[in-house]
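Design job #97: recover the sequence.
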């Protein structure tokens, strides 16, 4: 629990755009790991991290952005709950990879870091 609190404190020190960029990076890592990892725990850990990043960020965003992030978080939770079975199916792994890549790109766009 303390590790989570330390991570939260560190994450919240960053300005909102950087936090959204960090979330985008985590979503990108989910995309990559869903395709390549031999260990389902890697993806499960990244899904959990993304959920926390959204939890710690959404309330400080505009209502439309918050709604989009919460929708992402709901889908991430569903992936997390079904990952043990989905991991065994290449089509499911590919689906998560594509979805996480789209989420990553959208979150990076919301961050405003690219321009």
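Job complete. Output follows.
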């Amino acid at each position: 629990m303390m590790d989570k609190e330390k991570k939260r404190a560190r994450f919240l020190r960053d300005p909102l755009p950087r936090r959204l960029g960090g979330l985008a990076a985590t979503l990108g890592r989910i995309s990559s790991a869903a395709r390549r990892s031999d260990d389902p725990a890697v993806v499960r850990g990244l899904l959990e991290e993304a959920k926390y990043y959204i939890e710690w960020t959404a309330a400080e965003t505009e209502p439309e952005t918050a709604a989009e992030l919460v929708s992402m978080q709901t889908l991430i939770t569903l992936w997390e709950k079904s990952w043990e079975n989905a991991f065994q199916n290449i089509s499911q792994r590919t689906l998560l990879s594509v979805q996480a890549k789209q989420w990553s790109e959208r979150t990076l766009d919301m961050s405003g870091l690219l321009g």
